[in-house]
Write a structure and sequence with these properties.
Helix content is 56%, strand content 0%. By secondary structure, it is mostly helical. It has one domain.
Length: 94
């Protein structure tokens, strides 16, 4: 049986937050924004909202993430979608 290689490179695994974790945060942010939009319009905005969000906010989210302390924090999965540059709950990941 052939052993599968790890989908995340060794270099990425050594980083506190991998690309897959970035994607988890971006998906969580999209889901929150989609839910808020659904409440505003009193309907499910649908998959089209997700596509528009990526087109309109994807670049902003990437920049905010790159400048955030969240990517280096042990609490990234709870609140990293906020992509804060400062946080009173920040604890550096080892």
């Amino acid at each position: 049986m052939k052993k599968l290689s790890h989908p995340i490179s060794k270099n990425e695994r050594s980083q506190p937050l991998s690309m897959s974790n970035f994607m988890k945060l971006q998906i969580k942010k999209i889901e929150i924004d989609k839910w808020c939009e659904g409440c505003r319009i009193k309907a499910d905005p649908g998959q089209e909202y997700v596509i528009q969000w990526i087109e309109n906010h994807g670049h902003w989210f990437r920049n905010a993430y790159n400048n955030s302390c969240c990517k280096d924090c042990i609490h990234w999965s709870q609140c990293g979608f906020k992509v804060l540059d400062q946080c009173e709950h920040f604890v550096k990941a080892s």
